[in-house]
Amino acid sequence: MKARSYPVVLSLACGLAAGSAALAADAAGPTHHAFVDPADPTVAEIRSIGERALDHCGTALILEVRRVLTTNSAALAIGKLHLKDYKLPAAAPGKPAVTAIRRTGLQVRNPANAPDAADLAALERIQAQLESGDEVSKVLVQRVTLPGQPPEWRVYRPLVTLKQCLDCHGSPETLAPGVADTLKIFYPADQALNFRTGSWRGLIRASVSEAAPKP
Fold first, then answer.
1. In contact, 109 and 14? CB cutoff 8 Å
2. 18 or 157: which carries more pLDDT confidence?
3. What's phi and psi for 145, nearest 5 deg?
4. Does residue 215 fall inside a structural domain?
5. Residue 112's domain spans which residues?
6. Measuring CA to CA, which residue among 116, 113, 106, 85 is closest to residue 17?
7. What's the whole-model pTM score?
8. What is the 3-state secondary structure of the chain?
9. Which residues lie closer than 8 Å to 4 by C-beta, 6 or more apart?
């Protein structure tokens, strides 16, 4: 992969585990997915709702990292950064609703964050842009068809690695004290290591329904 700079679309400190239903992995894999031009006016509302949800979640993640690390070492923080009480934004009547927010990547720490087929296509698109030296997409929009369910829209943003993330996601030789032993307990199959400051970390995405579910 070529070393290059690209827009910092959303920066999240440290790797947070998906700990709530709102951040859980999908129960069923998609049967079909297609990318849609984010500038297409027909998806403007979906994109806007998805991006607002990602802004809100990103802020919540960063605040939790700062709060937990204020009173805990990096090793102890690994088991506490889960956003278990995170609430999805409420949908306006008759408007599209955010149904899930999750993070994924090609190198995941928590197996629950492993990409499904649609996620993998988005990850591979960003990876291809990086490898070819093209401008990296600031946002991706997909329409996903799940078996026996209404269509789902997905709004993705790339994540980059911050300097403070390296205590838990850098080279194994430079991890903060106790982190390696803690990872063996919580995430024995961990792949999310050897990142550098500014390197691509993965994607965060909001799943959006075409219309808010009826009460």
1. no
2. 157
3. -105, 120
4. no
5. 10-16+30-88+96-209
6. 113
7. 0.79
8. CCCCCCCCCEECCCCCCCCCHHHCCCCCCCCEEEEECCCCHHHHHHHHHHHHHHHHHHHHHHHHHHHHHHHCCHHHHCCCCCCCCCCCCCCCCCCCCEEEEEEECCCCCCHHHCCCHHHHHHHHHHHHHHHHCCCCCCCEEEEEECCCCCCEEEEEEEEECCHHHHHHHCCHHHCCCCHHHHHHHHCCCCCCCCCCCCCEEEEEEEEEECCCCCC
9. 130, 133
If one counts the domains in the chain, the total is 1
User: Cα separation of 161 and 200, whole Å?
Assistant: 6
Are residues 153 and 209 in contact, defined by beta-carbon separation less than 8 angstroms? yes
Domain assignment present for 36: yes
Written as six digits, the tokens of 83 are 């956003």
Average pLDDT, the chain: 80
| Token code pair at residue 161 | 């690695």
The answer to whether residue 69 is domain-embedded is yes
For residue 135, tell me if it sits in a domain. yes
Q: Residue 203 is encoded by which pair of tokens?
A: 């994607």
End-to-end CA distance of the chain: 48
What are the tens digits of pLDDT across the range 178-202?
Answer: 888 888 888 888 888 888 888 898 9
- Which residue type does 93 have? P
pLDDT, one tens digit per residue, over 33-59 is 999 999 999 999 999 999 999 998 888
